[in-house]
Amino acid sequence: MTIKHAIRPERPGRIRVGSAVLTLLTAVTLGLGTPGVSHAQQGTEAKPRQVGTIDSADLPTAAPLTRTSAFPADSGEHCEPTRAGSKERRAGAAEACVSTSPAPARSTAAQQQTLAAVAAADAAGCAITSPGTYSYERFGYCVTGVNVLYILRDSNGKELGRGTLEVSTSATLPAAGTTWSEQVTVTMTSASDQVTALNAKFRASCGTGCTTTKTAPWYGGDLTLGQSLSGTVAYSSAPAPATSVDFTTSYKLYVTSPGATAVDPNASWDNPRKIRCDDAVRDVAADATASPGCVIPSVTAVVPMSTQGSDQGGAVAAYLWAQQNLADHWGRDTLLTRAKSGVADRMSSTCGSGASKPFADATDLIPTDTCAQFPFAETREGGTDGAQCAELIPNLGNGGWVIFELEGGSGLDPAKPCVRAHVALADKQFADGQLSEGFKGQRIIDADQFKLGLTASIDGSHAACLGVSPEGARPAGNGWILNTTEPVTHVNKTTNPLGAAGVRATTAQACLGKTPGPGSDAGGDITGWQDAQLFAQANQFDTAGLSRCHLIANVLGGRISQNLVPCWQVGMNTGTGSMWDYEEQARDERAVESFGEDDAILYQVTPTYLDATSTIPVGVTMSAVIEREDGSVEQLFPDVYIPNTRGDTGLFNLGN
After folding, report:
1. Over the chain, what is the mean pLDDT?
2. Domain span at residue 614?
3. Whole-prediction pTM
């Protein structure tokens, strides 16, 4: 029986959950010492190809969407006769006329004071924009600069004086709740001639499905130039479970001279956009707890999702890469639509048995390997046949997220309509939790369209080798491993017949971060293996004393056949002065407390061959340098040469 690196004791390391996904690196794993495995079969191992990186510095910050609507068209004048015996009638005014319109674009000092007052009163509400324009966010609305003009005229139509009131309102809707208030401010911004003061009475109402629980923001209402009246009106809406109601808010203003009584409102308008209150976000059958709330449905919801610098951010990183790089740009340029029914079927079509190419379960490599599909199964856009999807592996390197394509060919087609990401179950649950909270927090009900505000938060300080992986490297933990080969005329040069043409292992290099990637046991008919057995037999040694040496050790994440060379188990592989002495140093260094999450070991092993026909090295040269987060370096061990000799004899070198 061939003894391999796997027999070596390994102390438990601190493993970040999200990095487990990075172990899915080969489509075929080697068997353990299975006879008759051809050298050609070794070449079937698939190598993931790096297809991109995510740099948090290049990402926009997710922000709520805003929308605007013009104030309704000018109402025209509403005129009423002045009351007999009133002060206005005694001064010659026969009628009082009121009109409503947006304020001029140029604001007055009084208007600026009003803006400040409204903003202070409702800091959580929507942004105040140009005068006379309603501004909306998902959970708020406001308007400023609604001008109400009051004019007195004599019996011949001659103007005797005028005054202007400016109205501003703002409200924040309840994401969870049934009641809200609207701040109302009226300011007298101009006065001339006989109009020196005005009285303003304000009333609010709302449509079916809503109740105005406080209709008046104040009582009384006399104003002189520069004075303001402020107060709140209040509303309530409590829809039944699994239902929603849409309605508008409406406003009436009664403007008169002080002491006069207005029978009818002489200024009125409606909010241009509807409000929706619902209790339809939850699955009523599964969740009996009422959870109503209200939104402006015409403002598209933005669901925030972030890697949050977390080990469990792999699924979100894959979604972000897909949003940036695939042609549909789901959730950014193309809206997603929530679909509460059919989720299981859409999940099966992409990730399960419903796909013509089912998701490859790799739990032998990633204990909790899970399919994270994008677009989500919770949307109408989800459910594409998984065979059409890009297969991605997100890798958290300390310089950012690196995305690999599993079974990658010469290039990833950006026209692919979907993604299946191989992530740890914890990563998928982390993303699912954010999506669910996004639906709840943004009150996204069935058939609502929404955007995704995807972000990646990464600390950019890290060891130099963690910042970029060389071409052909594969992810390993939060680092990478690069195995190289070169052609050899015969994979076995002493057999009869001679072996077929093939390759032999050359320099192996690794960037070993704090988080290790699992390795694999050695096995298979590697290059030179039959030559090694013939050599042992010719020198009357048991072939059980031979081994397949990992250039990058199993305990450091080494795994593929191109990483293996024939060696003596006791001699080059284990024992005093063997490869194991130095592999153990690298393994133990990563486990010490002073070796930080952003540190790494740049580790290299180079086999030495006698000539171009050699299938077994005469020895290997090993070196390792510690690279720190702050850019400093220190040598772990210098170039050391380990001969491929038997035991401590210094004899019987296997190299040919």
Report:
1. 84
2. 5-10+472-643
3. 0.67
